[in-house]
Give the backbone structure.
Amino acid sequence: MPSIHDRIREEVLNKTRALWTALTSADPAPEIKKLSNEEVNLIFPKMETLTLQDEEHFDAAMKPPFHRFDGYQLDDVRTIIIDLMAASVTYKVYATRDNKEYRATGATTWSQGSDGEWRIVVHQETMM
């Protein structure tokens, strides 16, 4: 049986992939809201920080036909266990959109709620 830390690593890595799958969709807002803690901070390059406290700004920034990427790949993935209810995933992301490359480092920090669900607390991308 895998250790608790191994299970946490697997869960938050799967959630991070779900986040990136949502970011590549035409309408990411509903899925990102489901994945997010109510106090989330989403920090994308060349954008103001998005939060759910300013839902109008959040929805405007992510409104359809929002489509950040046609495809993506995560490399150099590291999962850091903060405690049994918090973890952070760091990685390099390589993505494409209209034959243009996007290269960045990323970090997504997750917390586990009382319902057992892992939700984004902070997500940040930094261009390379």
User: Anything to note?
Assistant: The CA atoms of residues 28 and 54 lie 16 Å apart.
